[in-house]
Task: inverse folding
């Protein structure tokens, strides 16, 4: 089920990225004490009081002058109104109430979206009296917070989570394979939907970014039912599209969350670019089965090893997704299109594969016998028991004497041995190590 979205909105340099980092408990956002330094697409899953959500930091369109400041703030607010379920509107007690704050407030107020007003940089009680001028913005009681000191974050999240909607997600039967098409603009996502359906249900244009939102399209082939989830294209970063990009990413994430299988489309004519890695990473991090689909293969000049070289290029660029198969096709001419759905079926089965505990333990025991865990200061990791605790993706817990001794390289070795025994083609495999006593 897709998570509801909380967006942090405000003019530059009010501390949005610092608060974002506090909420997610990590330093994903770039924090620097000058306006416009958040240059990355910043989103993360969060949870508070048992409610899960996605949080977005809208900060950081590069600013060229005072007119641009107002334009960028307006665009951020418009995007938040369009995409978010709850908006945290952040202002700065040190700067006081500004014209830009007032303009954003008017837009948010007219939208009718739930808004939590957070006054940042209230670093001590002496400033508490200064928050009251923000009452005039019309959003009720301002919540005093300090990103640098971590004050008031819980109160702010209490207020935001309370306003989150209960989402009615579209549900499908268990036997329906949900497939998300993800990729940067103009790789042919909509064309591939049309080719699979055999009819022009989705508008196709050569203009990048013409698919505005995720579209669900159910269909059936050879007795298997599918739902295609087509996502809005993701643009390359740039001054104009910086904030827009964050929200197109949110749309893609919503689609990925609801999918079983992600088709990562790559433009065969242009080859692989950095943006493709970011997009593929979303599916990997979400634990989805994935297939690289190299589209526009009809226009690629080919020799006897072109496909082999392109596949190796994918393997070199996407080391973290060595499990994902590669399919070459042309959505336009339908060349090799018939090869795609059998691979979708296969990786979907692998994604939901459950291994019996005694068989899994036999495989791990053999792996340990061949290559025992390394020692650390005379102490050796001892694996007591292994069990699969979840599917979609397959998730395995290793019970051991000291989880901290499970080195990343040895965990990777175990994963490779497990994959060698059971395939798990097309799906990430998650392995966690816990103390033996944790199973009691």
Result:
């Amino acid at each position: 089920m897709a998570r509801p979205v909380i967006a942090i909105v405000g003019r530059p340099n009010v501390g949005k990225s610092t608060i974002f980092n506090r909420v997610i408990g990590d330093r994903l956002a770039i924090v620097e004490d000058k306006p416009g330094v958040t240059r990355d697409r910043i989103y993360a899953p969060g949870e508070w009081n048992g409610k899960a959500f996605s949080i977005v930091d809208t900060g950081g369109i590069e600013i060229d002058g005072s007119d641009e400041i107002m334009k960028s703030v307006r665009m951020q607010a418009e995007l938040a109104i369009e995409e978010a379920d709850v908006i945290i509107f952040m202002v700065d007690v040190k700067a006081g109430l500004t014209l830009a704050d007032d303009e954003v407030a008017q837009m948010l107020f007219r939208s009718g979206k739930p808004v939590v007003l957070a006054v940042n940089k209230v670093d001590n009680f002496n400033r508490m009296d200064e928050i009251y001028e923000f009452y005039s913005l019309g959003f009720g009681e301002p919540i005093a917070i300090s990103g640098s000191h971590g004050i008031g974050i819980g109160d702010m999240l209490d207020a935001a989570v309370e306003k989150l909607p209960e989402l009615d997600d579209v549900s499908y039967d268990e036997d329906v394979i949900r497939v998300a098409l993800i990729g940067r603009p103009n790789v042919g996502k909509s064309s591939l939907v049309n080719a699979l359906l055999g009819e022009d249900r989705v508008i196709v244009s050569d203009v990048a970014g013409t698919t505005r939102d995720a579209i669900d399209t159910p269909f059936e082939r050879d007795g298997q039912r599918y739902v295609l989830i087509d996502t809005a294209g993701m643009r390359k970063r740039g001054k104009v599209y910086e904030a827009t990009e964050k929200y197109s990413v949110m749309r893609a994430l919503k689609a990925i969350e609801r999918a079983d299988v992600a088709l990562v489309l790559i433009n065969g004519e242009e080859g692989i670019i950095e943006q493709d890695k970011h997009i593929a990473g979303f599916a990997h991090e979400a634990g989805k089965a994935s297939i690289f689909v190299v589209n526009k293969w009809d226009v690629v000049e080919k020799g006897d090893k072109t496909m082999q070289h392109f596949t190796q290029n994918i393997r070199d660029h996407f080391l973290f997704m060595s499990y994902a198969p590669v399919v070459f096709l042309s959505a336009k001419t339908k060349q090799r299109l018939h090869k795609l759905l059998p691979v979708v079926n296969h990786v979907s089965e692998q994604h939901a594969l459950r291994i019996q505990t005694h068989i899994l333990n036999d495989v791990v025991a053999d792996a340990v016998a061949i290559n025992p865990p390394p020692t650390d200061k005379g102490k050796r990791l001892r694996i007591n028991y292994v069990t699969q605790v979840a599917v979609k993706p397959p998730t395995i817990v290793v019970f051991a004497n000291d989880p901290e001794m499970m080195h990343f390289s040895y965990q990777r070795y175990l994963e490779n041995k497990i994959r060698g025994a059971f395939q798990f083609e097309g799906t990430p495999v998650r392995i966690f190590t816990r103390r033996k006593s944790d199973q009691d």
